[in-house]
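dumping this here before i forget
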Amino acid sequence: MRNIIGIISAIVAGVSLLWGGTDGFRAFTAEAARILELEDEQPQLPQATLIDSNGESLNLNDFKGKYLLLTFMYTSCGDVCPVLESNFAQIYEALPKNVLGKEVVLLSISFDPEKDTPTTLKTYSNHFGADGELWRMTTIQDQIELEKVLDALEVIVIPNEFGGYEHNSAFYVINPDGKLTNIFDYQTPQKVVEYLDSFLF
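structure:
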C-alpha cells in the first residue's frame, strides 16, 4: 500500500511540475513557451518607416485599423525564406479579395536593407506573386527602427560566417490596434487563414 501511495504521489508531483513548466501543458519547447508568452503579453508594434518594392515610403502607422500579417526575411536567403514566402503566397491567394487591403494587409519585411533595395525587392515580389499593394515586399532602412521592430516581436536575426543570417521564421498577426496577437509556424499557412476566417469572413 505504501508503495502505491508513493507511486501516486510521485506521479502527481511529476504532473504538477510538467503543468507548471509547460504553461498548463501548452508549451513543450522553449520556442513554444516564448511564443505563448508573446501572445499573452501582446506587445505593441513600434512605428517604423518602410520602403517598398516600388520605392515608396510608408509607415507602419498607415495600417492601423487593419489586421497586418507580417513575415521577416532577406532575399538572398537560400534556406527557409523561400518556403516562408511561398507559404505566405498561399495565404494571399486564399484570402477573399474583398477582405484584402480593406481589413487585412500582408507585409514581408527584409532585415537586410543594405542588399535588399527596391529593385531587388521588386524581383522578389514578382517571383512570389506579391502585388505591391495588398501584399508588399518592404525593408526598414533605419537600423534603430528595424531593431525596435525585431526586438518587440522577438525576431531573432544573427549574422553568420557566410554573409547571411540565422533567424526564426513565422507568420505574425498584428491586430487593428497595432498589437501582436498570434504567431503561427511558417509551415502552417492554412491555420492563419482559418484563424482569420473565424471572425472576418
